[in-house]
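Hi F.,

I've been meaning to write this up properly since the lab meeting, where we talked about keeping a consistent format for the predictions we share between groups. The idea is simple: the sequence comes first, exactly as it goes in, then the structure tokens exactly as they come out, then a line or two of notes. No screenshots and no reformatting. I'm using this chain as the first example so we have something concrete to point to.
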Amino acid sequence: MTFDFDKKLFAYLSLAFILMTVIGTVTHEYGHYISAKILGFNSRVNYGMTMLEGNLNNSMSRKEKIIFTLGGPLQTISTGTLGIALLYFSRKSFKKIEKLSLLQWVYIFTSLFWLRQVSNMFTWILFYFINGKFGVRGDEIKLARYLELPKWSILLTTALIGAFVLWTVIFKFIPKKVRFTFICSGLFGGVSGYILWLELFGKILMP
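Output, unedited:
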């Protein structure tokens, strides 16, 4: 991998990663929202959470909890898988090019919805080092508990798939000349998107 750095592309891709962090978070929550509707429950989506009206979560059956919790990850993973399919069927157009088209970037960022799984695994481990114990609030952790599986099983499995998707995107679809810029913008944009949306402005714009 070369270490060429394109400032203009870095700015564009960083903004794209910030925007996709917001879109990915909100659409993930609407996955939970749709699941709640299917189950016949009223719910409300805010900037980073889907809340059942009347705190119905405590009265849900095990099956209902699984369906409601699965809705978010299923939406995210399905979108990412759609992106992978689009990349696969258009893979010939990526060969021997140095500059990607807007549509090609759309395919790439759609596939990177899988990055949520990698990010969740990273934050789960980071939580342990900060607090001395693993978190129990993530969707994948809850699903594993409902299904009576090891609590790390679903999170680790999906994180490994997400890591493979990321590796494939970087080394199979991103031109060598812009790989370093892409990685830098992903790190900067992803962290910035998290802070800007979940810590600062999300609670104001979508309370």
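Notes:
The mean pLDDT is 94.
The helical segments are 7-39, 62-89, 102-111, 115-131, 139-146, 153-173, 179-205.

If this format works for you, I'll send the rest the same way.

G.
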